[in-house]
Write a structure and sequence with these properties.
The chain has about 100 residues and is mainly α. It is built from 3 helices and no strands.
Length: about 100
């Protein structure tokens, strides 16, 4: 990422989209209990806070190579966590459609 500001906005957009998707599932899928959606909503909020906090403080500020590697790992971790949450949302949908 070229700028931390852009990275933090991207993290927020991803978290907002995931949060909205869970809320839509909660409201539109009949019979879906809050016990299954509320932990997922909390997980999304925690993910957003963690990744924005990590974007603030890179390791090795003086070494550009270390900083670049740090942000590459941050983005890879974000993608992994976002995909895991999307899979959990899909499981919620499948659970109630079958």
């Amino acid at each position: 990422m070229a700028k931390r500001r852009i990275l933090k906005k991207s993290i927020s957009y991803i978290a907002d989209d995931l949060f909205t998707e869970v809320l839509v599932c909660k409201m539109m899928v009949p019979g879906l209990e809050s016990e299954k959606t509320d932990p997922l909503l909390s997980r999304i909020v925690e993910m957003q806070e963690e990744f924005i906090r990590r974007a603030h403080y890179p390791d090795g500020k003086d070494n550009k190579k270390l900083v670049r590697e740090y942000y590459k790992k941050l983005v890879a971790d974000l993608e992994t966590e976002a995909h895991a949450i999307v899979d959990a949302i899909e499981e919620l949908r499948k659970e109630k459609t079958t």
